[in-house]
Amino acid sequence: MASNHHLQRTSQYQETNQLPGAEDETTIDLYEVWELIKKHIWMLIGATVVGAVVAGGLTWALIPKTYAASGTLFLTPRVQEGEIDINSLNSNQKLVSNVMNLLTQDNIMSLVAQETGLASTEDVRDSLTISNTDNTEIITVTATTEDPRLSKEIATTTINTFIDTMKDSLNVQNIQITDQPKLSYEPVGPSIKKNAAIGGLAGLVLGLGFLVIHMLTDKRLKTREEAEKYLGLPVYAELPDLEKK
Asked: What is the rounded average pLDDT of the residues 90-119?
């Protein structure tokens, strides 16, 4: 009987003396988070620096550099008696989207692949970027590969093959090259600075996440109010935090 009575009292004590907030939803005190950040500021700075260095280093060491070459085409309007034919200008504006699509058609891409020694039309198409300057009839053809000479060759061959095909097949004579692709040994990617910034941000977020999770899972009694609520007894004395003083 005494043993059963003791077990019953122990069970009642455990039910009435749970940790603060055990039955409530977990909430985050922003002030407490701010204090936690200030306390571990150097750890967060270190996580940010490590993330940036790792991301930048991996980008430099593992991701190959790419090189680009660009050329531009211009759809020239018809000129009559020293004035631009407005109908021709409007026609060229509507023709721009068609030209951009025709540039990467299989018949053009297969010829470029043969000239440049690439394995397939998809290899050529994947290396190309076709863009149009807003409100103009200027079309830019950009080839990007890991070889600067190959990039120039792809861009040049694509432009020349397209113009020859348009003249022979559709008798289109008003497409002019305004800027030939040039050889450049300056890499256009990857961006080490950009990836380092992303890595630094990831390190900071992971550090903050670790601190917040640690705060939410830490069940230690840290304040006088928590101790009184947990024990159900008043606190008559507490030792000062000598480190803060």
From this structure: 89
Angle at which helix 148-169 crosses helix 106-116, to 10 degrees, equals 140
**For residues 178-189, b (16+ Cβ closer than 10 Å) or e, as one string?**
eeebeeeeeeee
Residue 200 to residue 73: CA distance in whole angstroms: 41
Q: What is the helix, strand, coil percentage profile of the chain, to 5?
A: 55, 15, 30
- Cα–Cα distance, 180 to 163 (Å, whole number): 13
- The one-character DSSP state at 33 is H
Please name the helix (run of DSSP H) or strand (run of DSSP E) that holds residue 196, with its range, or none.
helix 192-217
Helices (H) and strands (E) in the chain, counts: 9, 6
Q: Rounded to whole angstroms, how far apart are CA atoms 221 and 233?
A: 14
What CATH number does the domain located at 67-179 have? Answer: 3.30.70
Q: pTM for this structure?
A: 0.70
Domain map (residue ranges) of the chain = 27-63+190-218, 67-179
Least confident of 14-23, 171-180, 193-202, 225-234: 14-23
104, amino acid identity: T
With residue 133 as reference, give the H or E element that holds it: none
Crossing angle (nearest 10°) for helices 30-39 and 41-62: 70
